[in-house]
Specification:
The protein is of the alpha/beta class. The chain has a single domain, classed as Spore Coat Polysaccharide Biosynthesis Protein SpsA, Chain A (Alpha-Beta Complex), CATH 3.90.550. It has 9 helices and 8 strands. It has an 8-stranded mixed sheet, sandwiched between helices. Helix 1 links the parallel strand 1 and strand 2. The longest helix has 19 residues.
């Protein structure tokens, strides 16, 4: 067993909010861990697994994951709330880079490409809407995503296509902005993106696919989600009302071909 002085430095925290994901958690974690071992290095990354009050066998699987992939750790958030879970995970992250992803939403080429360019941008966003040929979803889910993004463009002058996709974050440039975010649930990471745009951070968006992911059926009813998001966006408008633009928008996009061509290179 290497001592602390000789142990590799942990460069990346992979934050994963989890609630009742026993059916897919271990399988998807194995695929992700293999990719992080390959592109970051064994022992130089860790899972931060945020248990959002799971009631199935998820806590036991989390314990197995921590034992299997040290120095991973877990955080418990009692109230089911995606934004609160993500915030708790970010508060525990002590690494130069953080990846945020859902157990049912990630993309291996995005992981590889973003890590390769980690020092060039402050915030990497994987978007399901950037290339409709890559990510098939039920029509009502596509409509909901389109509607939410239209609201962001209309009321917040958002220049991208999605705020909820997987991300890679360079913490030295983003930690102060993240600390100011007060939203919860699905608007927490939206607030992070909007604050980063207004602060002139270097942001890049790339298309992602969900073809490799073992997923599950969506849990939230569409009508309930629409009503909640309208209320949440009104709160977000009040929060950002006095947040000024500090410079020009620095938001770049790449195609899937760009990502794949570089992800395949050593």
């Amino acid at each position: 067993m290497p001592d602390a002085a000789s142990a590799p430095k942990t460069l990346l925290s992979v934050i994963m909010p989890i609630r009742n994901e026993a059916a897919i958690l271990w399988h998807n974690a194995e695929i992700l861990a293999a990719r992080f071992d390959a592109v970051v290095g064994p022992g130089t990354w860790k899972f931060i697994l945020v248990d959002n009050n799971s009631t199935d066998s998820t806590p036991g699987i989390i314990k197995q994951m921590i034992e299997r992939w040290p120095p991973s750790e877990t955080v418990f958030v009692a109230k089911p709330n995606y934004g609160a879970a993500l915030k708790a995970g970010l508060a525990c992250a002590d690494t130069p880079f953080v990846a945020t992803l859902d157990v049912e939403l990630w993309d291996l080429p995005f992981v590889t490409w973003a890590w390769k360019h980690r020092d060039e941008y402050d915030l990497f966003i994987g978007s399901r809407r950037a290339d409709p040929s890559l990510c098939e979803r039920p029509r009502y889910r596509w409509f909901l995503s389109w509607g939410l993004n239209a609201i962001l463009q209309l009321f917040f002058e958002f220049t991208g296509t999605e705020t909820h996709g997987p991300k890679l974050i360079r913490m030295a440039r983003m930690r102060d902005l993240i600390a100011r975010c007060v939203s919860d649930r699905g608007q927490y990471d939206t607030e992070i993106v909007l604050r980063a745009i207004r602060a002139g951070r270097m942001i890049v968006e790339v298309p992602i696919s969900n073809s490799e992911v073992e997923g599950r059926k969506p849990r939230n009813l569409m009508l309930k989600k629409i009503v909640w998001n309208i209320t949440a966006f009104n709160r977000l408008r009040r929060v950002l009302r006095n947040v000024p633009r500090e410079g020009p928008v620095r938001y770049r996009r790449f195609t899937r071909e760009d990502v794949l061509s570089e992800a395949e290179q050593p």
